Fold DUF559 domain-containing protein.
Amino acid sequence: MRVERGLRALCAHIGAQGGVARVAALRRAGWSRYCIRVAAERGLLVPVRRDWVALPGADAELVAAARGGVVLSCLTQARRLGLWVLREDRPHVAADPHASGRKSARAHVHWAAPLVPRHPDALVDPIENVLTLVAHCQPHEVALAVWESALAQGRAVRDELTRLPLDTTARRLLDAAQSYAGSGLETIFSVRLRWLRVRIVPQAWILGHRVDFLIGRRLVVQIDGRQHIGGQRASDVAHDAALMLQGYHVIRVTYEQVLDDWPAVQDLISRAVGQGLHRAA
């Protein structure tokens, strides 16, 4: 009975750690090698790599990190934290340049010394390391969207980031990041049009509805997502008509156009600004 209670407690402890644990950490927490071995023999634990075990069905990304001797970081950990991520073509992990271990060929491995030290038992990077890797991995506007998402959600604290020895690239992102930004798409849109040197207000409230962007005083840009159908579509069309009757000019594009056909979107907006459609009548 005592053994059974011990095994249940062991599995509960590992579950609280994310389902994957280092044997050395379990030993420090008070479990004997005998208890860990019995749990493995009964199928309650699965060997992952030397000195690492996991619960059956544990988080596959954490298991892969333990197996590879890396930590989840950059875009992968940003996505796991619920931050805005544009695209993640493959897992992004980090490893100390001098670390040993088997690194998966499928993953993008960031070989960089961390700003915040990583505990040997950790399988995910601290947010500060995640953001600094994103800064060098992604284009400026995409990285800025991730940084702003982290600040807006409280995942990162500006004052704490300021005290880190950030390099020029990361420092530039911190200086540009807004703590109360909306979606990543808003960040990308605004950064790409900054060269126009006109006021761009995201989520502006006009005639009882929010619009995605108000450029200048009269140019409205609406970005349609995949859910823009049915009743939502009818409501937006009616609001577009009301805006135009009040002297606003409306440009409506899709999410995919902004991300995949930006030159055409930029040309459309710059021509509208060139014609003065953003100015009050």
About this structure: The chain has a mean pLDDT of 89.
